[in-house]
């Protein structure tokens, strides 16, 4: 299964993708922005479990590649949370050399639209550390709003950081899209 945005291809895992994810998530800066615990010691098991679960995954879990060069850009997930809640959680992690090019915004908009139009969810949620200013700004541009905050959630680099819960509802997305 694969999808395309204007510049990117979002595709399911393939054999051999574990090294791409290992390199992405072993970047110390990405670890500090994407995770609230230490990743490296459990990474191999985590990657294998993630890669083996994609076939029956409730939503989309995969890799992002540049359409033109086929270069590995990052990792995304859109996980549905049940039929009665009609929600899903979203996450994205891009390699640093792809930051600041609008790609995160492009992918996030595409996946949020996919969640509302194809997966028939009512709300998309995500968690982001308060220190991740780039991601916070991008999520707000897409239309996510802060819904809650876990204060002093994570100890990183000598200080406590809040974890922010952000959401966008289907009707909010419709208004932004002019539907």
UniProtKB/TrEMBL annotation:
Pfam name, any one: Acetyltransf_3
Name of the featured protein: Acyl-CoA N-acyltransferase
Gene3D superfamilies assigned to the protein according to its UniProt record, in alphabetical order: 3.40.630.30
Organism this protein belongs to: Russula ochroleuca
GO molecular function, one term: acyltransferase activity, transferring groups other than amino-acyl groups
Source superkingdom: Eukaryota
Matching SUPFAM superfamilies: Acyl-CoA N-acyltransferases (Nat)
Highest classification ranks of the organism: Eukaryota, Fungi, Dikarya, Basidiomycota, Agaricomycotina
All residue ranges annotated as the N-acetyltransferase domain in the record: 8-171
